[in-house]
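ok so for the tutorial part 2 we go from a plain amino acid sequence to predicted structure tokens. step 1 is just haveing the sequence, like this:
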Amino acid sequence: MKKKYSGIIIPAITPLTESFQLDKAGVKNMFTNFRANEVKPFILGTTGEAASLPNDLKRDYIKLAGELKQGTDQVYVGIASNRFEESVTLAKYAFDNGADAVAAHLPYYYKLSESQIKKYFEQLAEKCGGPLIVYNIPATTHMSLPLKVIDELSQHPNIVGVKDSEQNEDRVRESIGLWKEREDFSYFLGWAARSAVALLNGSDGLIPSSGNLFPGIYNDMAQAAKLGDAEAVDALQHKSDLVGKLYQSGRLLGESLWALKVLMFNSGICQPYVMPPLRAQSAEEEANLLKGLHELMMNEGLDVKIDICE
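step 2 — the prediction. this is what the tokens look like for a chain of 310 residues:
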């Protein structure tokens, strides 16, 4: 079954200049890398520092992403905000500029009941003006979307899928069982460490942050899973784990985003700046990162193979 929303979608970083403007050359390089590896971008999500970005920068990013679309490219846009109308406005702007679907997690201040969660997403789906992907990320919202509620929301004609970043393997398997045979609803795992489990059990796709640097790992993994080659999938999962460990191990989420940008800067993709309150770490940390990247690329045969924009 070929679903409209499927495959490898990368939760893209937001390339920034030193003055905290959009690094447009970096965006172009990143999208070129994605296209070369047959993956799709999801901009303005958690990895994209969306909660910290001003609205004018978000609009600049959306507009550029739309301009960079080619052929059958798909672009996904995060619209989450603590202000409902702000999410709706951004969604409409995204669709006006070529977005194929938008994604939103819960507002993250007040703890909500199940009925409030359901009503929030239903209202957003009615107002946003296009296909909506529900995003479950308890690490930042401090609330988990119950599978029962997601399943009820999946019946809404404008809600086309879920991205789930909750780190619970039983939940992964149960989710796939619920929606594997649904043509109108897609399940994406946003937990790179269980990519192999998801793909081998029939997930519609992945949304792994490690794919910002080496997206080919996940495209290759998806192709191997389609062929039923579990050995190849597991070998690629090992590479994914090594990439994730390089920039995530021992770091808070925000620190890992800086580390990821440093690695991408060293690979010639974009500049390394993060938006406050995130900040650069020490020169020693940076040196250790780059040493680790060099060793990983040598040992695992990884490389970034794109033509870099000046």
